[in-house]
Amino acid sequence: MTDTKTLGDSLRENGVSRRGFLKFCTATASLMALPPTMVPVIAAALEKATRPSVIWLSFQECTGCTESLTRSHAPTVESLIFDHISLDYHHTLQVAAGDAAEKAREEAMHANMGKYLLVVDGSIPLGNPGYSTIAGISNLDMLKEAAAGAAAIVAVGTCASFGGLPKADPNPTGAVSVSDIIKDKPIINVSGCPPIPVVITGVLAHYLTFGSLPELDEQSRPKVFYGQSIHDRCYRRPFYDKGLFAETFDDEGAKAGWCLYKLGCKGPMTYNACATVKWNQGTSWPVESGHGCLGCSEPNFWDAGGFYNALSIPTGDISRNVAYSAAAGLALGAAAASLNSKAKKRAAEEHGVVTVDDLEKSS
Ligand code: SF4
Ligand code: SF4
Q: Which residue has the least CA distance to atom 4 on ligand 1?
């Protein structure tokens, strides 16, 4: 429901220090590729932000997206922001059940008509309205009703963004994405199976701060998190560029950390922030753990030819393709290196002048 308590009030009540909050704002600005001059703006806006209403609908999904969010170790400022935005309706996390839960959803929708943020995980079955229902209401009808009063929609996970696993061939339920149905609202796709928690909180922080969604790519994903491929940022990339590939998961190349391309890594065609943001509080990510990227943030990744099949290496001509890959890698690598050095220089220039200490002094 609507609430006059600000995020600043919530932060203080929960014992989050000013320093901890500014660190989060600095990290958020950096993640969103904003200059450090924006950190005080983000801090001021977040601190004054009042509690927006969020309605979260789960359709054909495995609950992995919600699990991903709730697995962040608590308490963090990110989780507080997530808590702060409040979920007026989330049928996995809410206490209310049955009629009381549906009443809460209807009240939140009417009280915040045109202003609430609608978050959706899971795909919507069009094959038969009875395939997936909540309180006897089909996913399609509930989505249309909730979307009508939303200010914007966040499709969390690859199922809501692109159809995901339920849409995999032969798509028995006729699963579709949110954007296949809703055409008249701003929609942001936060894809991934599941998405990285900090990417979800980054999008929510952007919405809280600026009252709008961040810049999107052609798949309606936030560019700051999905603007570069896994391959562009992978620490194994130097091995790819030299044509050094692990052939099995336990050979000498695998032990030496060589590229996993020939073991099916989909990093070259996958756009996500795993290589930089990582998982489990920045501990590691799949390629660092020795397994290729599955391409989970891309449309149709379940039908992309097998998780352990190399992307474009025909069986009869591996050596030529590897040579081609290495050459292409070198060309791409050179371009990326040039871009990276410019970006690093700019970041060094911009990031060198503002520290949390400076911000603490000036706030
Ligand atoms: S193919 Fe995979 S393992 Fe190899 S450099 Fe690219 S992302 Fe990394
Ligand atoms: S490494 Fe690839 S498959 Fe794994 S979570 Fe990231 S985008 Fe998804």
A: 259
